[in-house]
Specification:
This protein has 409 residues and is α/β, with parallel strands linked by helices. It is 40% helix and 13% strand. Helix 5 links the parallel strand 3 and strand 4. Helix 12 runs parallel beside helix 14 and helix 13 packs across helix 14. It is globular and about 60 Å long. Keywords: Aminotransferase, Transferase. InterPro entries: Aminotransferase_I/II_large (IPR004839), DapC_beta/gammaproteobac (IPR019878), LL-DAP_aminotransferase (IPR050881), PyrdxlP-dep_Trfase (IPR015424), PyrdxlP-dep_Trfase_major (IPR015421), PyrdxlP-dep_Trfase_small (IPR015422).
Length: 409
């Protein structure tokens, strides 16, 4: 008789929750869209606009030469200098700040860097709490759990203008905080955090000491006629925190330049944290191939394609205002490519399933991006729409959603 081999304990892995799109597949598994109507996915935030030609060209030109070399964890000086110059231009930072040699670190997109930051800086035996907005990008929660930390949720609700409620956290809770994730512009609500918010947070940070990790991957998808969103480094500069003390920003080319497959981004901020993070990443083994770095230099060095990108999103958000606002009023996002749409009756899962069966359009239930709190689930009663497809497809999908809302209501 062969005894069953015991499974090794997975511990922290068992605490991970299913990813939102896995839950969506389960919700729609036995649902059938109408015959003769093509399916339109608005559930996943994967950019569909054309990638800039110069990025592909730079990739091809440098590919053969770079394949025979291991890339350095810190990237090439040329890439770091290009990133630093872009940050200075974009956020009106003084010359030489950030310092490309000590305050900039390339990353394989924001996802891997946002995950890795907790592994590097959260100490479960000392300051285990990892704060994050609720709803949130699920990587924040998974990173906290796998680092042995404790996720602490800051609800973002309409009545609070979708800003995390810092006042809801006690001094005792702040004292246990090792790191706080913030997303500005926000996913899913498109909210840009204000100077006043950052000043309040800086005052708390000075009392308690923790790392601020600002996910700014949607920062370039603002409305073309609006002010560019404020970033954490600019907020630091305005507050006199010229060394970006205990602050890190995370940026990506995926949304800005429509190249999610390139897997390229960066971390910038406090030189002391960058040095420690670089040491961690040397062991982690995550370095950008040199041909990816060459393509990234081309992307960060060009703003024409970024302006074209914004104008394309502007047209789609104008369509959404015309079609959806009259039947389901929503907060127009300041930036990003999502609409955080309130659902008639508040049943986001039922709405999502009914919409798919009636029209073939998939959206993401808001509760799949959030967790219940004492005040209720801040994601329940919303669905997230990603306006990433080409304009005609988005218009078709928005019309279908608008017609369904009138029937559903």
């Amino acid at each position: 008789m062969v005894s069953e081999r015991p499974h090794p304990s997975t511990g922290r892995l068992d605490r991970l929750q299913p990813y939102p799109f896995q839950r969506l597949r389960s919700l729609l598994a036995d649902a059938t869209p109408p015959v003769g109507r093509g399916a339109i996915p608005l559930s996943i935030g994967e950019p569909r606009h054309p990638a800039p030609a110069m990025v592909g060209e730079a990739l091809r030109v440098s590919l053969d030469e770079s394949l025979g070399r291991y890339p350095a964890t810190t990237g090439t000086a040329a890439l770091r200098e290009t990133i630093a110059a872009w940050l200075q231009w974009r956020f009106s930072l003084p010359s030489g700040r950030p310092d490309p040699a000590h305050e900039v670190l390339p990353a394989a997109g924001t996802r891997e860097a946002l995950f890795a930051v907790t592994q590097a800086f959260v100490e479960p035996g000392n300051r285990p709490a990892v704060f994050m907005p609720n709803p949130f990008y699920q990587i924040y929660e998974g990173a906290a759990l796998l680092a042995g930390g404790e996720p602490v949720l800051l609800d973002t609700r309409a009545e609070n203008d979708f800003e995390p409620d810092l006042g809801a956290i006690t001094d005792a809770q702040w004292a246990r905080c090792g790191l706080i994730y913030l997303c500005s512009p926000g996913n899913p609500n498109g909210r840009v955090l204000s100077h006043a918010f950052w000043e309040r947070l800086f005052a708390i940070q000075q009392r308690h000491g923790f790392v601020i990790a600002a996910d700014e991957c949607y920062s370039e998808l603002y409305r073309e006629d609006a002010e560019p969103p404020l970033g954490l480094l600019a907020a630091c500069q305005a507050a006199g925190r010229t060394a970006f003390e205990d602050c890190l920003v995370f940026h990506s080319l995926s949304k800005r330049s429509n190249v999610p497959g390139l897997r390229s981004g960066f971390i910038a901020g406090d030189a002391r944290l960058i040095e420690r993070f670089s040491r961690y990443r040397t062991y982690q083994g995550c370095a950008l191939p040199e041909h990816v770095q060459s393509a990234s230099i081309a992307a960060w060095g060009d703003e024409h394609h970024v302006r074209d990108n914004r104008r394309a999103y502007d047209r789609k958000f104008a369509l959404a205002r015309r079609i959806l606002q009259p039947v389901a009023g929503y907060h127009d996002p300041q930036a990003g490519f999502y609409i955080w749409l309130p659902v008639p009756g508040g049943d986001d899962e039922g709405f999502c399933r009914g919409l798919y069966q009636a029209s073939g359009v998939t959206v993401l239930p808001g509760r799949y991006l959030s967790r219940p709190s004492r005040e209720g689930d801040p994601g329940a009663g919303y669905v997230r729409l990603a306006l990433v497809a080409e304009e005609a497809i988005c218009e078709d999908a928005l019309e279908r959603i608008g017609n369904f809302i009138q029937t559903y209501a």
